[in-house]
Design brief:
The complex is a heterodimer of chains A (122) and B (889). With 122 residues, chain A is mostly helical. Chain A has five helices and five strands; from the N terminus they run ααβααββββα. Chain A has helices at residues 2-12, 18-28, 34-43, 52-64, 91-113, and strands at 32-33, 68-70, 74-75, 83-84, 86-89. The longest helix of chain A is centred in the last third of the chain and has 23 residues, at 91-113. Chain A is globular and about 50 Å long. Chain B is of the alpha+beta class. Chain B has five domains: 3-72, no CATH class; 85-137 and 356-497, no CATH class; 148-340, no CATH class; 505-533 and 754-889, no CATH class; 550-741, no CATH class. In chain B, strands 15, 16, 17, 18, 19, 20 and 21 form a seven-stranded mixed β-sheet that branches. In chain B, strands 2-3-10-5-7-6 form a six-stranded mixed barrel. The radius of gyration of chain B is 38 Å and the shape is elongated. Classes of the chains: A mainly alpha (122), B alpha+beta (889). Chain A binds chain B through residues 1, 5, 33-35, 38, 51-57, 59-61, 63-65, 79, 82, 84-85, and chain B through 21, 25, 28-29, 31-33, 35-37, 39-40, 59-60, 62-64, 66-68, 70-71, 74, 78, 82, 84, 87, 402.
């Protein structure tokens, strides 16, 4: 039953909200704590970085729906080794993120055909 | 301030903002949230100093004000986003299947309670709210005469001349039809025993006024009325079915009172019409014929026509009333010398249901109260179940199930149980409604329409589901709050979660509601008891009655009919076991009698006021011996002489009439004119009540049937035999006299009395049933609470017992718990009872709605039953072994 639910859920979960996609992008590269994710987003050059509350609400919801999971609480090297809550991406989260990427790629292709975007640099 | 101190102050600020988020979010994410903000604050301070830090503070406020309340609103969204109803259904059914006793108890309670409610709902809905099966039924009215100061008759039938004027009136009155009635002997073939049927005599436009058409054949044409009209009859579906449902019946003849009538139409099965009666009960019809007189040429003084009018589409009822009033003024001036006659319309349905309306309203309200008690009961059972599953809830919560999911599951369980109960009760209602209709008085308005249909079934199932959901709200909320922490604290000495207080409150509500229902039930039953004990002015025991119609078509000359009556009387008297036989034109408690204005010139009670000196009285024709057969009381003088003397026309007055005309004087021997004859008063009697069992009706005058040629008499037979066994003999005796006679309404006088009280009996039985049901439910609730309290306090009581308290002291401790709930319920219930008392005033006879005897005994009875419901489970205290309960806390 669980499998069925997840497979159906894959498409029901798309499109992802920007903040959700950002979180999955960060966690795909490895476990992060909250401020780490925010720093990643800033580094990606996003114009508006999500607020802390917005991000934690997204984290709570994504943990509920199984896209991410809480990892062990441990010292953070970038914060004077104070202990932090870490998060990791789940297999399901990875699948959803890939599906979102495919969706965005399809949109990009369509945008290029429509002349809204430049040719991909190859 | 040092940077680290600034960061610490900032952390306090972020923690404060965190309060804007809901508790579960704070539990899960709060620490990380604060840490992240602190990281951010530290970064900002390092990069941009205090200014940048301030910006982070402001940013955090905006963030939290937006997201905190947003997160609080999230359960509603989460419900939609993460709902998995299929899984919920599966889980709920699986859980319920594991607890068959509980399901049976709840569904059973709901089925019985909701089923009773459904029956009442059906009756109330069909009679009070459903529209009648006519075209624009809201535009139909009956018109009545109000004789004003002339005689005491506010709701009199019209003269034929009034109907003719209304037909001509126009304006807001679109059309009008007169409605008369005739009981006729119907015979189809020689071989078939004749039967008496009720025939409505109408204007030819009658069916057009109602906006209905026959299912077969046609209605009457406009010209088919008046002297010399063709003899045509339209049958109801019911009569047509009784005659064999022959489609070829159109064009054939049936005999009404020996006269050939051609069948031209058959009405559809759903058509029903009753002629509203001026006094007494509405009259059904089996067939329709048209008037064989010209209404405009009838005697204006004789009010004997019902009148149905249709208001023009869009006309307000005030406009119709004004138009009718205008016609009334014209008639008053023309036919009544301006003495104050009025005509007024009443809405067809309002008029029809008016007599049963108070009883139905009371029943409806009682039904709603029962529903409330039922819901509280189901809620309390569900809550108890939730309490048992406290562990399960707390562990699910601890394992990560969110509150919303638990609430949803509990609500769903309630809905499922409610829906099951709704389905069960619909079945019960279908059966119950049939039973009720079978028991209901024959003249219950719109009786034929009272049946359960799919709309009512749907309503009941939805109602059951909603009741189930509402009942599970309290347990659901409670379940959602169960946490591991609360579970741990529950095993501590104090014991118990909030659900016990909630269940206690529910018991208080149940006791209060039950008190209201019980006192209403008590009052109605007491009122019915008064009616049963009331003296109707005659003794019904051992008396059989039967109507023997002798229509002029069979006995053309009056003396022949009178001779036939003599023969009938002799034949009946010859039956073994018959003590005495007599006859009357109007049986008591049937209301079917004619009235006439009586004046006694020269009587001492006259004042000279024309209105005071004329009294409208019921004129009842009887044969000699009627007073004796019926066991009426003779107050003065004597009853009719067995031997009728030529030249002396004897009459009896009832006490009220004698008092009116002869205050403090002897009326015996006085004479007065009546129907073109001079009659002599020979006696004064107490009324054999014509309308209500418990009070005198209109004044009565008894005249000798032979003196005034009453053709159709109701014979009454006093017998020492079982009345039922007498009936076949009586039928046989009549048949030997004339096989054409259609003996009708053969029944015992006791049946007549029972029939007159049927509506009250049903109300009393239903309300008493509701009240007892509520009492039972409240007792069950109380039992559960006290039983739970004993279980919970086992340890505590064990300690008390070990320390030297005796068992009775411990028992008292538990009982006081229950008694406190009962007392609170009674305290709330008493004012509610006083308020609802006014509501049921309309259905009570001889009992005040605040009758202290009833109210005190009901409250006392409820308290006793409730305390028994406490005592039975509390007795378990006596079995507590202190040593054992201390070993196993």
């Amino acid at each position: 039953m669980g499998m069925d639910r997840n497979r159906g859920g894959l498409f029901r979960r798309l499109p992802l909200r920007t903040v959700e996609f950002h979180i999955l992008l960060s966690l795909a590269a490895g476990e992060r704590h909250g401020y780490g994710i925010i720093q990643d987003i800033q580094a990606r050059g996003e114009a508006t970085v999500p607020d802390v509350g917005t991000m934690y609400r997204a984290l709570a919801r994504m943990a509920d729906t199984g896209l991410i999971a809480a990892a062990a609480r441990r010292p953070a090297p970038d914060a004077n080794d104070e202990r932090r809550n870490y998060y990791r991406i789940t297999d399901e989260g990875r699948r959803v993120a890939r599906a979102e990427v495919r969706r965005l790629e399809a949109l990009m292709r369509a945008a290029r055909v429509g002349g809204l975007a430049g040719k991909a640099a190859k | 301030m040092s940077p680290s101190r600034l960061v610490n102050v900032s952390e306090g600020w972020f923690r404060l903002l965190l309060r804007l988020y809901p508790a579960d979010f704070r539990d899960d994410m709060g620490e990380a949230f604060v840490e992240t903000y602190r990281d951010r604050a530290r970064d900002a301070l390092a990069r941009g100093g205090v200014i940048a830090l301030a910006r982070v503070w402001v940013r955090a406020v905006i963030d939290s004000v937006r997201n905190g309340p947003g997160e609080r609103a999230r359960p509603a969204i989460a419900w939609r986003r993460t709902g998995n109803w299929g899984r919920d259904v599966e889980m709920a059914t699986r859980r319920l299947r594991r607890a068959p006793a509980l399901v049976l108890a709840i569904v059973g309670t709901l089925t019985i309670g909701l089923g009773t409610f459904a029956v009442v709902y059906t009756v109330v809905q069909r009679i009070l709210f459903d529209s009648m099966p006519y075209k624009r039924p809201g535009d139909l009215y009956f018109v009545w005469r109000d004789y004003g100061p002339m005689i005491d008759m506010k709701r009199g039938w019209l003269g034929g001349t009034d109907v003719a004027e209304l037909q001509k009136a126009g304006g807001p009155i679109e059309d009008a039809s007169g409605v008369g009635r005739l009981l006729a002997t119907l015979s189809v073939r020689e071989a078939v025993e004749p039967a008496e049927i009720s025939v409505l005599i109408v204007s030819p436009n009658f069916f057009d006024v109602l906006g209905v058409t026959p299912a077969r054949g046609r209605g009457f044409a406009r010209h088919e009325v008046g002297p010399g009209r063709p003899d045509l009859v339209v049958l109801t579906h019911d009569l047509w079915t009784r005659l064999g449902a022959d489609p070829a019946i159109l064009g054939t003849s049936v005999q009404l009172n020996g006269q050939q009538q051609t069948v031209i139409g058959v009405m559809p099965p759903d058509f029903g019409f009753v002629r509203h009666a001026s006094v007494g009960r509405p009259q059904r019809a089996d067939a329709y014929v048209t008037f064989n007189v010209d209404l405009a040429k009838t005697n204006p003084d004789a009010g004997s026509y019902g009148c149905l009018i249709r208001g023009r589409q869009g006309s307000r009822s005030e406009a119709v009333a004004a138009a009718v009033d205008t016609v009334g003024r014209l008639i008053d001036a023309r036919d009544f010398k301006g003495r104050g006659l009025r005509l007024y319309p009443t809405g067809l349905k309002a008029d029809l249901v008016a007599p049963v309306r108070p009883a139905l309203v009371v029943l409806g309200v009682a039904g709603i109260f029962l529903m409330l008690v039922l819901m509280v009961n189901v809620a309390s059972v569900l809550l108890a179940r939730a309490a048992q599953r406290e562990h399960e809830y707390a562990i699910s919560r601890a394992l990560g199930a969110n509150g919303v999911a638990l609430v949803r599951a509990t609500l769903f369980e309630g809905a499922l149980l409610g829906a099951l109960g709704g389905i069960g009760s619909s079945l019960l209602a279908i059966w119950g409604t049939r039973l009720l209709v079978a028991l209901a008085p024959l003249d219950l308005p719109r009786r034929e329409a009272v049946a359960v249909d799919w709309r009512i079934v749907a309503t009941i199932v939805v109602l059951g589901t909603v009741a189930g959901v509402l009942a599970s709200i309290a347990p659901a909320l409670w379940a959602s709050r169960a946490t591991l922490a609360s579970l741990l604290s529950a095993s501590a000495v104090r014991g118990g979660g909030g659900h016990r207080r909630m269940r206690g409150a529910m018991v208080v509500v149940q006791v209060a509601l039950s008190l209201v229902l019980l006192s209403a039930g008590g009052l109605v039953v007491r009122s019915f008891g008064r009616l049963l004990r009331a003296d109707p002015g005659f003794r019904p025991e051992g008396v059989v009655s039967m109507r023997v119609p002798l229509p002029p078509q069979f006995y053309r000359e009056a003396p022949a009919a009178m001779a036939a009556q003599d023969r009938v009387e002799r034949a009946l008297a010859a039956i073994p076991g018959v003590a005495a036989v007599s006859a009357t034109s109007a049986l008591p408690l049937t209301g079917l009698t004619g009235q006439q204005t009586v004046r006694i010139p020269g009587a001492p009670g006259n004042t000279g006021d024309i209105n005071h000196d004329g009294v409208l009285a019921d004129i009842i024709g009887t044969r000699a011996g009627y007073v004796e057969v019926m066991n009426m009381r003779v107050v003065a003088g004597r009853s009719f002489d067995p031997v009728r003397r030529e030249g002396l026309r004897e009459v009896l007055l009832d006490r009220a009439l004698a008092q009116h005309f002869f205050p403090n004087a002897n009326p015996i021997g006085a004479t007065f004119p009546l129907r073109d004859n001079t009659v002599t008063i020979v006696g004064v009697v107490d009324q054999a009540r014509m309308y209500d069992v418990h009070r005198d009706g209109r004044p009565q005058i008894y005249i000798r049937g032979e003196d005034f040629t009453f053709r159709t008499m109701i014979f009454v037979i006093r017998t020492t035999r079982d009345p039922q066994s007498l009936m076949p003999d009586a039928r046989a005796a009549i048949r030997t006299i004339d096989p054409r006679i259609a003996l009708a309404e053969v029944r015992t006088m006791e049946e007549v009395v029972v029939n007159a009280l049927r509506q009250q009996r049903i109300s009393a039985v239903l309300i008493a049933g509701f009240a007892l049901g509520a009492l039972l439910l409240a007792s069950l609730g109380l039992y559960g609470v006290v039983s739970g309290s004993v279980t919970r306090r086992r340890h505590e009581l064990g300690v008390r017992l070990a320390l030297g308290a005796d068992h009775h002291r411990a028992l008292r401790l538990v009982l006081v718990d229950g008694a406190r709930l009962v007392g609170a319920g009674l305290l709330i219930g008493v004012p509610a009872t006083l308020i609802t008392g006014g509501l049921i005033r309309g259905v009570l006879v001889g009992v005040s709605p605040w009758d202290p005897v009833t109210l005190v005994s009901v409250a006392g009875g409820l308290a006793v039953v409730a305390l028994i419901a406490c005592y039975v489970p509390a007795r378990r205290v006596l079995r507590i072994d202190p040593a054992q309960s201390l070993r196993q806390p």
